[in-house]
Amino acid sequence: MIKDLMDAGWIHDPSEGFIAYLGGVWIRDTNGKKEFGFIAEERHANRNGVVHGGMLMTFMDRAFGMTSRLTSGAIRAATISLSHQFMTPMEIGQFATVTPRISRASGRTSFVDGTLFHGETPIMHAHGVWRLSSRPES
């Protein structure tokens, strides 16, 4: 699977801190937008044998926060709120993707939404608000 992802233009970002413990994220540019993905591993499972909701929420938080920061040019972004609606369980071994969308940005605040998919199957939808740091000087 990893070779197929790399052949399709995905780059693995091992990240740092907590996200590194979860395996990092995969990122690629698609039509000028960032797309984020992750491979569901055994360590992501809940007691039911599917991906734990907390893992899905953490992944969406990372993808949305990075999108807020990269789109705005902010140095840092911090989650103010994040709401999730689960749609379909994600199986271990699957690869899921999201292309976050900035629905509104004003000054130091960014509003983001997106749906996480495995192929054509929606897994969850989320929307949230991020606080942006000062923009770097030009």
Question: What topology emerges from the helices and strands here?
Answer:
Layout: H1 2-7, E1 11-13, H2 17-21, E2 25-30, E3 33-39, H3 53-72, E4 77-86, E5 95-98, E6 101-106, E7 109-118, E8 121-132
Antiparallel strand pairs: 1-2, 2-3, 3-5, 4-8, 6-7, 7-8
Biggest β-sheet, characterized?
Answer: 4 strands, antiparallel
Overall shape = globular
Number of strands: 8
Unreliable stretches: none
- Structure classification: alpha+beta
Roughly how many Å is the radius of gyration?
A: 15 Å
Portion in helices: 10-25%
Share of residues in strands = 35-45%
Describe the strand arrangement of the main beta sheet, using strand numbers.
1-2-3-5
Q: Total number of helical segments? A: 3
Q: Mean pLDDT score, rounded?
A: 93
The span between the termini is 40 Å
Order of helices and strands: HEHEEHEEEEE
